[in-house]
Amino acid sequence: MAGAALPHSLRDVVKGVRIWQGQAVVSLGLMILILTRIPGGAPLTVALVTKKACVFVGVTSMVPAILLISFVGKVE
Predict the structure, then answer these.
(1) Which of 35, 12, 37, 38 is nearest to 25 (CA)?
(2) What is the spatial distance between Cα 4 and Cα 68, in angstroms, rounded to a whole number?
(3) Higher model confidence: residue 1 or residue 21?
(4) Other CB atoms closer than 10 Å to residue 33's CB: what's the count?
(5) How far, in Å, CA of 8 to CA of 24, rounded?
(6) Does an H or E element contain 16, and which?
(7) Is 46 part of any domain?
(8) d(Cα 16, Cα 25) in Å, to the nearest integer?
(9) Whether residue 75 has pLDDT greater than 60
(10) pLDDT given for residue 1 in this prediction
(11) What average pLDDT does this structure show over 15-39?
(12) Does the pLDDT of residue 59 top 80, yes or no?
């Protein structure tokens, strides 16, 4: 794929999806998959807190935190 650039920002993804650029569509799909995991972790964390499973609470709360940091952080 000579000359094909991966979208590096949300703006690039949106522009690419509007013109139906394959790599932008794939990037949007990956973002959606990642973002669906973040709200799913909250009820699990609450359930583990009520069971007083401290180790699992730590691990379970780290996953959404890492996912959020990956969206906020700038990767070059």
Answers:
(1) 12
(2) 27
(3) 21
(4) 9
(5) 9
(6) helix 10-18
(7) yes
(8) 7
(9) no
(10) 45
(11) 86
(12) yes
| Residue linked to tokens 């920002």 | 9
Q: Is 49 within a domain?
A: yes
- Indicate whether 3 belongs to any domain: no
Instruction: Name the domain count of the chain.
Output: 1
Phi, psi of 53 (to 5 degrees): -100, 80
Q: Which residues contact 25 (CB under 8 A, 6 or more apart)?
A: 16, 17
What DSSP string runs through 2-59? TT-----SHHHHHHHHHTT-HHHHHHHHHHHHHHHHHHHHHHHHHHHHHTT-HHHHHH
Q: For residue 28, tell me if it sits in a domain.
A: yes
Domain span at 51? 10-72
